[in-house]
Amino acid sequence: MSIELYSWGTPNGRKVSICLEEMELEYNFHPINISKDEQFQPDFLKIAPNNRIPAIVDNDNGMTLMETGAIMHYLAEKTGKFLPASGEARWKTIEWLMWQMGGFGPMLGQAHHFLKFNKGKSEYAEERYATECKRLYGVLDRRLADNEWINGSDYSIADMAAWPWAARHEWHEVDVAGEFTNVARWFRTIAARPAIARGWNVPETDQQIPQI
Ligand SMILES: N[C@@H](CCC(=O)N[C@@H](CS)C(=O)NCC(=O)O)C(=O)O
Fold first, then answer.
1. Same domain, yes or no, for 25 and 101?
2. Do 24 and 56 reside in the same domain of the chain?
3. When you count CB atoms within 10 A of the terminal residue's CB, does the N or C end of the chain come out lower?
């Protein structure tokens, strides 16, 4: 079992490198430097037609996959790890993975665009995405008030999907420790896992895992 990983050191990229590390899969890393527009290279587009990182190729069957939700679901089924085989916990994992893909990622990314990289250009957009970020953190915080893990029973791909986005809390200007204490507890528990440190550092970087 080995995987080719095409990625970069962003929240979406780290979702998959963390997943591969947690599942103890062998993989070869191929950097796609999005600050140099390498995501538009024709060879990469054959694997990732949406020109976004990350993407994988499975050497067992030659299949290419883009979109982190699909990649993580696929790897969980391939290995039988971090996605319960049946029952409510399986569907809660998929439900919250979809929630991350549709909200706790795209909306946080918009907040980064307006609050960190283009501050002062649109008061309306800053307000809109700051409010949406806090709403999403509130949703996650309430889920984690009664559950140690997002799916209600075990650490799963749903946690691995949301965690790298919460790691960027300073970029979207959310005071997690002060306002979302259940998220803070969950974040710190996951941050201490050795596979997180390895997956965070793909590609190798001097960026430390942000503290909460
Ligand atoms: N829905 C996609 C989103 C992927 C995505 O937005 N990747 C960003 C980096 S985090 C990217 O490749 N950006 C390059 C660009 O905007 O051209 C997924 O989950 O894989």
1. no
2. yes
3. N
Instruction: For residues 50 and 138, state if they share a domain.
Output: no
Atom 10, ligand 1: residue with shortest CA distance: 12
The closest of 203, 190, 207 to 149, measured between CA atoms, is 190
What is the spatial distance between Cα 14 and Cα 196, in angstroms, rounded to a whole number?
Answer: 9
Question: Does one domain contain both 114 and 72?
Answer: no
Q: How far is CA 85 from CA 15, 79, 89, in A?
A: 21, 11, 9
| Nearest ligand 1 atom to alpha carbon 55 | 20
What pTM, to 2 d.p., does this model score? 0.97
Do 50 and 130 share a domain, yes or no?
A: no
Q: How far is CA 189 from CA 72, 162, 164, in A?
A: 21, 13, 13
pLDDT in tens, 120-174: 999 999 999 999 999 999 999 999 999 999 999 999 999 999 999 999 999 999 9
List ligand 1's pocket residues with C-beta within 6 A.
Answer: 10-12, 34, 39, 52-53, 67-68, 101
Query: Are 177 and 92 part of one and the same domain?
Result: yes
Here the tokens at position 131 are 């409010």
Count how many domains the chain has. Answer: 2
Q: How many A from CA of 145 to the centre of ligand 1?
A: 30
Q: State which ligand 1 atom lies nearest to the alpha carbon of 101.
A: 19
